[in-house]
Amino acid sequence: MKPVLLFELMLESVIGESVVSQNLYIESLLQDYDSIGLSDLNEHNLQRRIDSKYVFSYQVLIELLNRLSNEFYVLEVNNKRLQTYNNIYFDTPDFKLYNKHHNGHKNRYKVRKRHYKDSNISFLEVKHKDNKSVTTKTRIKVPNSRANIKSFIYENLPKEYTKLVPSLKNQYKRIALISKQDIVRLTLDIDLGFSTAEAKTLRPINGLAIAELKRDSSAKSESFDALLHQINLRTSSFSKYCIGTSLNHPELKYNRFKPIITQIRKFS
Asked: Which of 130, 110, 137 is nearest to 48 (CA)?
């Protein structure tokens, strides 16, 4: 075996062991939370909502988890509080959905097939963000009939986006926290990996956590907002689809995402 290849394999092994140990520690912190199940989650349904996103290091994630256990439930699925999500995103062959976001259009869409590994459930989802920054998510369970899927696409997407092909694969682990007081959910994503739709292995992004605060337009999360202020965290325009696409398709323009890509590299 070539020395360089051997070194790369050793490095991947060390990184892998580090990620495993970090995740075990995170799982231990989550034991301090009261848990709820999927059936309880329906009471906190936020298919139409306002989203705020944050990007930070694992160290900040640990601080957040240590300070939120009294105010949030954690979602538990099949005895797991850190769940694995697998996504396949779809776009037109010329990446119209990606380019709409890159060019700053407020009225935009994303299409993905999401597989919840721990519950073994999959959905085809369409997310629409309107010009008031309100996100609406619609979905249909898959597998489903070809006719139902076609009807779902045509009902929820403008005609110019209905000829879709797989464009990106994405995987991550998620912690889902649900406020005990308000109609507020907080998701925390780690161990992100991306690849083109054709690739067999994912490109990992280590040391990074993505938080997404999801709330009803009338809901508040004063304690969480105060905590963000204390640790000097500010909102970020992180899109998993757009960042993953820009990293795996260098032929596409990505100027809009350069600041967040630079931030990611600082954590890796």
From this structure: 137
